[in-house]
Specification:
334 residues; D-Maltodextrin-Binding Protein, domain 2; ten-stranded mixed beta sheet; three-stranded mixed beta sheet
Length: 334
């Protein structure tokens, strides 16, 4: 009987230790941009699997929601494609650094038009979103795309506050003085025309189901949805297809050393092969985050920037160059 009692006590001790270990597991919660969500979700799963003492979660809610949550302190970190200036970071008690770059692509659903077949000039893209070009057989479009059908254009845009919208409208503001005056740049603007979709998947779903639709989304979502993407005229006057190589070419000129608070917008970069609508997706965390949680968060971010780069490339994102990773490690993750 004594032996059985001892065994029971030993079993209870094991259960107690196991329970304590589980209770002591660190959970890091993040929320925000849907632009990087495919790779962030891959990273959180992989890191949590290989680091038994840490569970990392990320909710794809949109950049606006992520910023609200990190400002209120309800998450440990936020993802945003709408960067804050150094002044804005200091005012909110936040620290910001870049995590990845990627392309915002224009997608269409036009019968007979295949991937990377349609060409849109800078002016024509802006005029479509201004509601000035309303049919696909408009002579302005036929000049670069003979044979387009007589079909109404349905403009699709984000319905939520979105970093992807910030990137897209920032680009439109640079290439069209009229767009800048009418709608401007922001995560949420007063769109002249169009129907809304929630987050990147919502835009893709609307484009996929509406013949004649045009929208914008992060590259990985367009690939996964098998939607036709568009060649866009870049600053050099060349029509550029959205590819990882062309995204990399556009990001190469970024001068991060002279970017206070790591504030950078990579739309309309120069270069013969540069894709014109590039986005930087950022991480934000609170300066007053508890030291023990901050230490675990920094371990995770360092893993993402180094070991996570392979998964990022596989999912069609552009990891930061090694010199930029080292700059972030030196100035932020120390």
């Amino acid at each position: 009987m004594k032996k059985i009692t001892n065994l029971a006590m030993a079993a209870a001790a094991v259960l107690t230790v196991t329970g304590c270990s589980e209770n002591n597991k660190v959970t890091l919660n993040g929320a925000g941009a849907s632009f990087p969500a495919p790779v962030y979700q891959n990273w959180t799963h992989s890191y949590s699997q290989t680091n038994s003492g840490v569970q990392v979660n990320y909710q794809s809610l949109g950049s606006g929601a992520g910023l609200n949550q990190i400002k209120s302190g309800t998450v440990d970190f936020a993802g945003s494609d709408n960067p804050l200036t150094l002044e804005e970071q200091n005012s909110a008690g936040l620290v910001q650094f870049p995590m990845l770059t990627g392309g915002v692509v224009v997608i269409v659903n036009i019968p007979g038009v295949n991937n990377n077949q349609l060409k849109l000039s800078r002016k024509n893209l802006a005029d479509i979103y201004l509601g000035k070009i309303t049919r696909w057989n408009d002579p302005k479009l036929l000049k670069d795309n003979p044979g387009l059908p007589d079909l109404a254009i349905t403009v699709v845009r984000r319905a939520d506050a979105s970093g992807t919208s910030f990137i897209f409208t920032n680009y439109l503001s640079k290439i069209s003085a009229e767009w800048k005056q009418v709608a401007g740049c922001g995560s949420s603007v007063k769109w002249p025309v169009g129907i809304g979709g929630q987050k990147n998947p919502g835009v893709c779903n609307n484009v996929a189901k509406i013949k004649g639709a045009i929208g914008y989304t992060e590259y990985t979502y367009a690939v996964e949805a098998k939607l036709a993407m568009v060649q866009l005229e870049n600053k050099a006057g060349n029509f550029i297809a959205p590819t990882v190589d062309n995204f990399t070419a556009g990001a190469a000129a970024a001068d991060w050393k002279n970017a206070p608070g790591f504030y950078m917008v990579l739309t309309d970069q120069g270069g013969e092969k540069s894709y014109p609508i590039l986005g930087v997706t950022y991480i934000l965390f609170r300066k007053d985050l508890a030291a023990d949680r901050k230490a675990e968060l920094f371990k995770y971010f360092n893993w993402c920037l180094t070991s996570g780069a392979t998964a990022a490339k596989r999912l069609q994102y552009v990891p930061l160059p090694e010199n930029v990773v080292q700059l972030i490690q030196k100035e932020v993750l120390k």
